[in-house]
Amino acid sequence: MEEEKIYIVGAGLSGLIAALELEKAGFSPVILEASDAIGGRMKTDEVDGFLMDHGFQVLNTAYPEAKRYLDLQALHLKNFEPGAVIFDGKDSYIITDPMRNPLKIVGMALSKVGTFLDKIKMFTLTQELKKKSNEAIFNEPTVPTHQYLKEYGFSDLIINNFFKPFFRGIFLEKHLNTSSRMFEFVFKMFALGNAAVPEKGMGQIPSMIRRQLSKTQIYFSTAVKEIEGKTIYLESGEKLEADRIIIAVQPDKVMKQLQGQFAPARQVINLYFSLQRSFMARPMIGLLPGDHLVNNIVFMDDVSKAYSSNGRSLLSVSVLESQLSESELIKAVQAELESISGVNAEYFKFIRAYHISYALPNLDDLKYSIPMTECKITDHVYLAGDYLLNGSINAAMTSGRTAAEAVLHSYMQTH
Ligand SMILES: Cc1cc2nc3c(=O)[nH]c(=O)nc-3n(C[C@H](O)[C@H](O)[C@H](O)COP(=O)(O)OP(=O)(O)OC[C@H]3O[C@@H](n4cnc5c(N)ncnc54)[C@H](O)[C@@H]3O)c2cc1C
Fold it and tell me: Of 89, 105, 221, 327, which alpha carbon lies 20 to 30 A from 2's?
């Protein structure tokens, strides 16, 4: 077994899980990673006493794959308070736990966010989805989420003030055109689990998987240029002969014949500011309904103190679309922050921006899982990555395992 050369392209979550599963079966795979670190889209930088995730993202504790691969206790997860602070012009109000305890939403906030009927509908949906398996959710016919919400009978008030800003920040698209399957899945996860970040940042998640690897070698700064048959051509000009290859990146990047077969990605801009003190002072997401540059905000040190060790508060701001130059964008965002908080724009000290051009795959046909046969493209080349299923941590992990199983299966047939 040891002599079989299995290469994995990409050290994101899917590549790391594929390696872990191959190790469990006795193999010693080699990961080829273009960048200088593991984690792919899930990384945390340490800058001037702040921890900055590459884009605002959370782990949902109800993800089945998170329970399988992560020691949630050892991550020292810090939970968000369920619900959201809605910034509506100069006013702000809190909607507590709408997806787990909708009947507890307090009357006053509800009157601004939705109707009494919305509260009942929220409750019914919560009950329905909790009982529905993830596979069943992804086997439903798909309609755009905005249509689904209308057809379910939610009012325009709650769609515009809660669902739109909340789910835009998750789907990373403005109009809720994302499939109702993803809506149901995410809603169910929020109904069952907590949104959380590891105490010391999202980068702790891939690090925890890497620590479980003992026989896998990772070559950093090793970008794959092209794969042809069993040969891997590196950007450096070197070539490697493989026995099996798992491509844990969108494969059109490394296989000419697949170019043009994948939809463009969804992007997001994540800006970080520091402020003397959080103006929210609670571990909650802040939403800006309507037409703003800013979609959502969070003071990360309200969620986990370790995100700031220099005494200032760290504000993470997500912007979905902008044609502005970076300096114009910073000014415009500071002005919006002033308008919702009353804190003078100049007090929001800009730290850095992450322009994430590939944040989520833009998929029409979302899946929860695929049979092993579907990730095999030749006898030697297999696919992994969230783009095969749906854009989530859960999907990336599932896809890594499926690819590893397919490789193992191929050996069972040839030996
Ligand atoms: C801003 C943002 C917010 C998100 N929010 C959430 C959330 O709240 N909840 C959730 O569940 N999910 C969220 N996600 C999605 C989640 O992060 C991804 O689904 C997951 O990390 C994808 O892992 P992956 O292994 O499929 O791909 P990637 O992480 O993209 O890994 C691919 C790896 O391959 C490497 N690579 C690329 N090209 C080459 C090459 N030619 N040669 C060698 N290596 C190469 C890359 O450097 C990278 O390390 C979010 C993502 C982003 C960016």
Answer: 221
